[in-house]
Design goal:
Blueprint lengths: L2 E5 L5 E7 L2 E7 H5 L23 H4 L4 H34 L3 H12 L6 H11 L7 H7 L4 H8 L1 H10 L1 H64 L9 H35 L6 H19 L6
Antiparallel strand pairs: 1-2, 2-3
């Protein structure tokens, strides 16, 4: 069988096969013999360096690599020195604590607190010294009684608080029970006195309200009459209203003075009523509020809920 390869008008190779009917069966030479194999593109992996985001980064802006390295080395050396000093102050404070020198230990731990960002050991030691090894736990709790346990945890750190909860649980429980025993009779006494004062104050407030209304309503009427007659003075028969205007005006002035006195008494009674509803309005009530605030902190340190 005869075959020919010719180029078509586009320069492509065409194979012609001769048959009985002539040259037929045209096929693309390139498609049959020179099929291209497309190889997959080689994958390229890039590794990006992890950037250091230390707090010193701002200090490194504009520095050469050599200067940046020196600065980092300097800061690392300073951090090591602070750590060594921190551990020394804590060790000295611990020795003073063991010897019963609470004031000296407090000063040592207070200095250590400024040398470390977390300072768990220093926080625990500082409050051990401050409370005389928790012989007076109210010294700590009193600092946060008006705040919250969250403030205590923030200042001391969660790790330090967990250590106190673990090591001084019995101390906290004992003090919590003491406050509970003191609270019960005091609350009964304070609330009973508050109820008695409430009755007296309510009666006074009712009387002062009635007096206020008894003065305010006539005063408003007298003012209205004085104004009406004063306007009539400018009418043709205005002379007849001068005396009435003066009389009602003078009466209004007297009632106005009484109105000031009545208003002052009413306002004072309202203030007294509001003050009586606060437990801390008296010394005993103030002590009751303090006990309850202390118990709230102790309950959190004991991980118990108050009813």
């Amino acid at each position: 069988m005869e075959e020919r390869i010719i180029d078509d008008e586009y320069g492509r190779g065409i194979r012609l096969k001769k048959t009985k009917e002539g040259y037929v069966d045209v096929t693309d030479e390139l498609a049959e013999e020179t099929e291209e194999v497309t190889e997959p593109a080689e994958e390229m992996a890039f590794e990006f360096p992890v950037l250091d985001t230390d707090e010193d980064d701002e200090d490194l802006v504009g520095l050469s690599p050599e200067e940046a390295l020196k600065l980092r080395q300097k800061k690392e050396a300073e951090a090591k020195e602070r750590r060594v000093e921190y551990e020394k102050e804590c060790k000295d404070g611990e020795e003073l604590l063991n010897n019963g020198d609470f004031k000296g230990a407090e000063a040592k731990f207070e200095k250590a607190l400024n040398l470390d960002a977390i300072a768990t050991e220093a926080s625990v030691g500082y409050w051990r010294a401050k409370t005389e090894n928790f012989a007076n736990p109210d010294t700590l709790v009193g600092e946060y009684a008006d705040a919250s346990i969250e403030s205590l945890e923030y200042d001391l750190g969660m790790d330090a608080v967990d250590i106190l909860k673990r090591d001084y649980k019995e101390v906290f429980q004992k003090r919590y029970d003491e406050l509970s025993r003191e609270e019960a009779p005091l609350a009964e006494k304070v609330e009973a006195a508050q109820a008695r004062r409430r009755e007296i104050i309510s009666a006074r407030l009712k009387r002062s309200t009635l007096v206020f209304l008894a003065v305010a309503l006539p005063m408003a009427a007298l003012l209205a009459l004085a104004v009406v007659f004063a306007l009539k003075i400018f009418t043709p028969n205005g002379d007849d209203y001068i005396v009435l205007t003066i009389v009602f005006g003078a009466a209004f002035f007297l009632f106005f003075l009484a109105f000031i006195v009545a208003t002052n008494k009413l306002i004072n009674n309202v203030r007294i009523k509001r003050a009586n509803e606060r437990l801390d309005a008296t010394e005993e009530g103030e002590r009751l509020v303090e006990i309850r605030d202390y118990k709230t902190i102790y309950a959190c340190l004991l991980d118990i809920s108050e009813n």
